Amino acid sequence: MPDAAKSLKDGGTIVPVREILWGSAAGAHKYETAQELPEDMRKLIVKLMVVQADTEFASIQQHRPWLDQAPTLEDRWIESRIVADEARHGLQACRILRDFGEEGQKYIDELLAKREGEHKLDAFNMKFDRWSDVGAFTCLVDRVGVYQLRAFQECSYGPLARAMPLMLSEEQLHLNFGASVLRRMSQDGERYYGSRDEAQAAVRKWYPRALDMFGHSNSDTSRRAIEYGLKRWTNEEARGRFIEEVRGLLAPYGLELPPAEFDRHVM
Ligand SMILES: [Fe+2]
Ligand SMILES: [Fe+2]
Fold first, then answer.
1. Which of 17, 37, 141, 170 would bridge with 42, disulfide CB 3.0–4.6 Å?
2. Which domains occur in the chain, in start order?
């Protein structure tokens, strides 16, 4: 159970509660409407929601060809769930943008018109040429997304914080699925689909793009986001935590990470 989704005993029945974890960085003030947000924070939320929605819609385009090409029936079913989840996450981010009136609606219209190759982050402009790409993308790139969602969960803007527990629990499926694809390729390659070499090549392809997603090391936006409780760590701290997490996850499958500087575009 995600740490935010605690349960309460209520008249003998277990009632799930979506608890908002207000972060210490968020300060005492809680905002419930877009209108009451300080100007700088409002701009930052709009910027972060546009990127968030863009990644959700882009990943639908990337997954789409695998809905009927994934190797097993179960894999196809999970692909269809992932596509449905990402569509819902895109909708969720756009609902938050809608609360910002005309400005938000303008961004939504732009987001809906974006085609493959036109997205903000490099990781979302690359095709899934092989099944190993699906595994490495969901294991690595979706995992970076979860770092950002966890910070939103604790932020001081109520509508954003409340959207997070469900998104996080859905993302957990994507991460676990990605790791399982890489594991099956590495350990059961012959019986499954692909090989350890293919899984390793996909890790080398997607890992640098995942590290880039944390952003520049000396980012002013990231410093402001921490002040407003919209990020938990600096880009560099988050990247370091991610590297440690992924190294520990992939080592048992015999998969190695390239050096952190390898093939990077954003440092
Ligand atoms: Fe998502
Ligand atoms: Fe996802």
1. 37
2. 32-253 (1.20.1260.10)
